[in-house]
Amino acid sequence: MAAEADEPLEMNFVRKHALEQAEELGVSVRDAATRVFSNAAGSYSANVGLAIENGGWEGEQQLQEQFISRKGFAFNSDKPGQMDMAQDVFRSSLAKVDCTFQNLDSSEISLTDVSHYFDSDPTKVVKGLRTDGKKPMSMIADTTTANAQVRSLSETVRLDARTKLLNPKFYEGMLNSGYEGTREITKRLRNTMGWSATAGEVDNFIYEDANDTFIADDAMRKRLMDTNPNAFRDMIATFLEANGRGYWDTSEENLDRLRELYQDVEDRIEGVM
What we know:
The chain is mostly helical. 55% of the residues lie in helices and 9% in strands. It contains 14 helices and 6 strands. A hairpin with a 6-residue loop joins strand 5 and strand 6. The termini are far apart.
């Protein structure tokens, strides 16, 4: 194990950092060198995606603590198959991170198709733990083709929005499929907001263009309402939540329209004429 190798610290930074962490936490070098963390045995995800989906979170600090508590279990090479809670080591390790990284390996599942990607993203967690408060660089590897590319998270979110949420070929295809298609469009908007919550890497224009596409257009509003009023209500609520949480800066005219629309859709669902 590199952390236990008898080598000069200037030649072995793994050992250097493990020794510093061992002293900081009062643990053995072997425990301090732990770098592979996940859920407790039998558990899955940080449940950040679930919180984003139902809107039941007070603030980003709640999401960050949830991530640490769910993911702070360490793999132990001395006890194969056993996951031990090690939140202190996890926090200390995250506080030293300079770059976060995820891999896209399927052309069918992108950043906003599922909540898994932002659920596993620690970008703002790291920022909150670092003593300098600096947000780490966030990178995404696209290995869906033979020509693999590494892009920044913000660039990948922009690319994803242009190819899915804001792409007429995509949303028209979804709308043509009926009820479920409208729900799929709404889900991608909600997952986009998930990236705002966990990483802060969603440009304002994405929300603005989505609003222009799905809310400002009278004909589009009618299609969404007629196809799936429940999903349309959730879409409107997502726009309002994105603004309320500081992720989307827009005009009062847009917000007033959204508030009025929300009530209209609510009345439609409840059968109030």
